[in-house]
């Protein structure tokens, strides 16, 4: 019998502006460095997914968002554990994204997002956005 894998619950922001989605590239020295992701992070024990996402975007991108509807929840088994990612459509309320933990950000139309090298757990959200672009309207 295999040992139970550690489940890491995280949230990601699909930040939408003028029909484009914010894509963020993970910085050096981090797990999955160089991969693209939806910014966000771990859900703390005392937080809801939406509260965690709001906090993480304030910390990572130094801006404020409104968290709207859920896009999807996906899981991926990495060597360090299973990441369970829940993504939400988000809109900027105040400020604009600043690079603090990421090396690059791009605003892309959903159809152009598959050209990036996405972290495996983020790929289901990318596929959902490409197949139903009305999600971001």
TrEMBL record:
Gene3D superfamilies: Nucleoside Triphosphate Pyrophosphohydrolase (3.90.79.10). Residues 6-130 form the Nudix hydrolase domain. This is 8-oxo-dGTP diphosphatase. CDD domains: NUDIX_MutT_NudA_like (cd03425). SUPFAM superfamilies: Nudix. It catalyses: 8-oxo-dGTP + H2O = 8-oxo-dGMP + diphosphate + H(+). GO terms for biological process: DNA repair; DNA replication. Keywords: DNA damage, DNA repair, DNA replication, Hydrolase, Magnesium, Metal-binding, Mutator protein. Its cofactor is Mg(2+). GO terms for molecular function: 8-oxo-7,8-dihydrodeoxyguanosine triphosphate pyrophosphatase activity; 8-oxo-7,8-dihydroguanosine triphosphate pyrophosphatase activity; 8-oxo-dGDP phosphatase activity; 8-oxo-GDP phosphatase activity; metal ion binding. Belongs to the Nudix hydrolase family. Pfam families: NUDIX. Its EC number is 3.6.1.55. It comes from Bifidobacterium scardovii.
